[in-house]
Amino acid sequence: MVKERIFSGIQPTGVIHLGNYVGALKNWVALQDEYDCIFSIVDYHAITIEYDVESFRESILNAARTLMACGINPDTCRLFIQSAVPEHTELTWILNCITPLGDLERMTQFKDKSQQHRGNINVGLLDYPVLQAADIVLYKSHVVPVGEDQLQHIELTRRIARRFNNRFGDTFPEPRYLLSHTPKIMGLDGKTKMSKSLNNYIGILEPPDDIWEKLRTSVTDENRKRRNDPGNPEICNLFTMHKSFSSQDDIITINRQCRTAEIGCIECKKKLFENMMRELEPIQQKAAELKKTPDVVYGALAKGARQCREIATRVMEEVRVKVGIRVQRDA
Ligand code: AMP
Ligand code: TRP
């Protein structure tokens, strides 16, 4: 049976944090045998905001190492750097020409980033979702596993694919999104989404002592003012994390103990830390090993890029003919 194709991407900006991990990466790893997977480190997306040229290269490698350490298997999936396949930007131009400006101006991520980067509201920032749509449809992908913040972009990708198909003939599947059980992790302040651009995250490769310090001081259910007040796990970010890191038994117990004030937040955090580190420690070890063997990472990326280029060349040729810019001898 032919497997459905998955495409997803992550920006190599700063470190990979718990939100990325439980919102997306863990799902990528879980899905990689069931689907034909392509995972990309989207460097062209990352340069839409200010970045440091010197450390960018290392950030890209670091992202690749982290993905492999998390369990992305380059023997069964294709792992590659977006800019290694130039068809991504070529297709973006064509999709630009069928995307209404108004659709892009309505994107909440564009509005948020325009607020955060007032001094640098560049065209790339606005066009970001079209590049994302090109990433996905270039491989005729069916499924896109992402965190909740990306749903609007996937919806737009569907509209763009539909518009292309209507205008130029059936070419691209309309991809559907796939969410993890924990598609939105809040930051340590409990108020804003955990994100690389806000200093509210826990990096998955941070030393255990630092992770504990951040967890210890993170905001929980704010209505629970004293140790003996009953808490409400539904509105607590820590409980959301338990859902990703703890066993079913632990989750049930913590839920009850929090509601009845049998345990305080600090005990809940200790349990979470223990369960979290059990999962993160082997990842940290693997990442450290991969750092010592860069050829393994380079090799995986080169292989992924080669395989992706092969698909991209074929699809792009079909697209050029369909939109009428490849004049064929027998046409
Ligand atoms: P980014 O780091 O923006 O490239 O995001 C990579 C993936 O992580 C995307 O699928 C995002 O939706 C997901 N993601 C990022 N931040 C969070 C978060 N706080 N909670 C859940 N998922 C997230
Ligand atoms: N915009 C996505 C994010 O910030 C990253 C991304 C780029 C992506 N291209 C993609 C995700 C294609 C899924 C599919 O998280």
3D architecture notes:
By secondary structure, this protein is mainly alpha-helical. It has 2 domains: 5-185 and 293-323, HUPs (Rossmann fold, 3-Layer(aba) Sandwich); 208-288, Tyrosyl-Transfer RNA Synthetase (Orthogonal Bundle), CATH 1.10.240.10. It contains 13 helices and 5 strands. The chain has helices spanning 18-31, 43-46, 53-70, 87-96, 101-105, 108-116, 123-137, 151-168, 208-216, 237-245, 248-259, 265-292, 294-323; strands at residues 5-10, 36-41, 78-81, 143-145, 176-178. Helix 4 packs across helix 7 (123-137). The longest helix has 30 residues, at 294-323.
Q: What number of domains?
A: 2
Distance between the termini: 36 Å
Number of helices: 13
Number of strands: 5
Oligomer: single chain
Strand order of the largest sheet: 1-2-3
* Major sheet attributes: 3 strands, parallel
CATH architecture of the largest domain: 3-Layer(aba) Sandwich
Approximate strand percentage:
5-15%
CATH class (first level) name of the largest domain:
Alpha Beta
Cα-based radius of gyration, to the nearest Å: 21 Å
Question: Which structural class best describes the helix and strand composition?
Answer: mainly alpha
SSE run: EHEHHEHHHHEHEHHHHH
Query: Would you identify the CATH H-level superfamily of the largest domain?
Result: HUPs
**What is the helix content?**
40-55%
What small ligands are held by the chains?
adenosine monophosphate, tryptophan
The backbone outline, from C-alpha atoms, is: globular
- Average pLDDT metric: 96
Under CATH, the topology of the largest domain can be stated as Rossmann fold
